[in-house]
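I have been asked to look over a protein record a colleague put together. This is what I was given:
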Amino acid sequence: MSFFNKMKGGAQSPPAVSFSEIAWSWIGAFLGITPVAFLNYNLFNGDDSVFIIGSFGASAVLIYGAVKSPLAQPRNFVGGHIVSAIIGVIAYKLFYPFPWFASAVAVATAIAVMHASKTLHPPGGATALIAVIGSEKIHNLGFLYVAVPVGTGVIIMLVVALIVNNLATSRKYPEFWL
């Protein structure tokens, strides 16, 4: 019975955020995704999203909307994506004939390594998975996937987060670097 009792929860819902906080989150996400998407659709012709990946949307929620979260800090954001991208590429290269298995290995291993390296960033799991389930164009990048789109996109979004999150008097980013 205690197993099911755990599922009841117990903590109260967090308080609502101010309009100012919502506005700064929107501005940060807009300005963070804009250059990455612009480069994707103009430099790379929008062909198979080689400069922008879905996990960047989830990262935007953290680094622009939950700036105090340990999971949103630069070490976690950058490290989590890079570690996960490497693991995803390795999993695909080792197990590509079995994409269901490669997917599970990539995500589970990315989580374990992010924990061990203190770089846990939930969107990193998606970054690892994209390396496995992405199209042939993603697969053809091989380890270049770690640099472009992942590394370059992460650096662009981090620079925007450092600027936008510190323009607001109510915000401070990062809480820690290492």
User: Anything to note?
Assistant: Residues 19-167 form one domain. The mean pLDDT is 94. Helices lie at 2-5, 19-43, 55-65, 74-95, 99-116, 123-133, 136-141, 144-167.
